[in-house]
Amino acid sequence: MAIPKVCGIETEYGVTLRGAADPNPVLASSMLINGYVEHHKVGWDFEDESPGRDARGFAREGAMPPEIETHLVNTVLTNGARYYVDHAHPEYSTPECSDALELVCADKAGERILARSMYASRRLTESGQEIVVYKNNSDGKGNSYGTHENYLVDRAVPFSLLVRNLLPWFVSRQVFTGAGKVGSENGAAAVDYQISQRADFFEEEVGLETTLKRPIVNTRDEPHADPQAYRRLHVIAGDANLCEVATFLKVGTTAIVLAMIEDGFIEKDLSIIGPVNAMRTVSHDPSCRATVELLDGGRITAVELQWEFLRLAQKYADETGLDACGGDEVGGMVMTRWESALADLERDPMLLDGQLDWVTKLALLQAYIGRDELDWSDPKLSLLDLQYHDVRPDRSLYEKLVRAGKVERLVDEADVLNAITVAPATTRAWFRGGCLARWPDAVVAANWDSLILDVGSDPLRRIPMMEPLRGTKAHVQPLFDSVGTPAELVERLQG
Amino acid sequence: MPERERKQKPAPEKRVEETAEVAAPAKQGEELKEELDDLLDEIDSVLESNAEEFVKSYVQKGGQ
To answer: Which residues, numbered 229 to 268 in chain A, qualify as contacts with chain B under a Cβ-Cβ cut-off of 8 Å?
Structure first.
């Protein structure tokens, strides 16, 4: 029986320091995150004083200069997320979620946090400078940065079985996970527009790397949970999505495929010949008609490959159920959406304008091409491509389309705003976030699988959290409600 | 689950004649075009100036 597909998304955001002669991305990332964290701390005192919001507290009394702080920026938020500087980018890792819809909400909350961070960091930047972030995966000049998904997988599943099934899965799912890109990079053949931001950057089938010679299936083995029982599948072959439907499909369908692999349900070998080239072949064809070669013989389109997976999933849902992947409600919604997306992709991909990023962006570009008689080499199209992903609400073209009613949403904005500070109730993130919200000064360190509390007397107490589904609201809320201090909490946990 | 219900439905006994989809009562082509033009105008007003320079200056190193 497949184990529950606890999941999360890590996003490295593109970052620029506008107005700086020689912008340092590490410094900009640090200021961005410090701005948010400091603002949040100060915010408690000023929450109800809305007049004069901009003028208050912008001088940072007693704060260390940002250069020193760059080494320190690694924070955990009350919503259970990790927000930190990774390499030269600000990175937001959502808290652990138990289904695709919860994760859509947590991922969207991350965008709101980055937007608030840009606003808050204005008091740290020099006059005339502004930090701007983009939720995309490429600078268009051969540099890529990742959006990684993580799924809880049973340790007992042989990794080779995962690899065999996931190679054709990652190649074919691009037709709905792609965020769209003008042109190609990294030595790939020239193309006007392609489905994925990332496809040009995969050079190996399987491997440990994430920054060079990127593999389609990443072998990082760092479970952040009981290593005897679990593996954390670290997926690096995906795009940063803004469209909620795209994120929902990406996570929801991948969770179902992983559950099927765990339950030994995929007997048919769907392996394709040359998956690295196939990534590009699929991405480079927005008509979705290009074919790849199956190991068993014959050629097949990415959409046809997806139908193969979907048919298996329908049988799986009927015979086994979708308990491990969001249950009948969310899992059922994934199945319905998946089927209708494939039907539309087959008929005319442009039917998915407003649901998938690569189609929504393409429709916008085509509208500009039509109105301004642009040619695909016009830099204006590259600008539109980039600015689609701008995270500032007043500059983001994606947000413009949302506000014009052109993009479908799956979650309520009220739930997204709540997820900025409140952790998902269905995983251990609830415990982590709850401790941080209650006793921010007593939490000395927090990690995915442990929490260190200062209970006021030696020694510091470490609370292990090796089970991602323990520490949920149902488990720990009565405990939280009945203790007043971290010391009492630790006492009750031991007792 | 909707999928299951759909499968259980018996095939219609009578031949079903395909008809053209009912035209949405809503917007005419002209109105849609106007709406799109307005949206593009609005986007024009927030687009970064000097596209070529702007795109050129966006460089991101050190990513995963």
So the answer is: 236
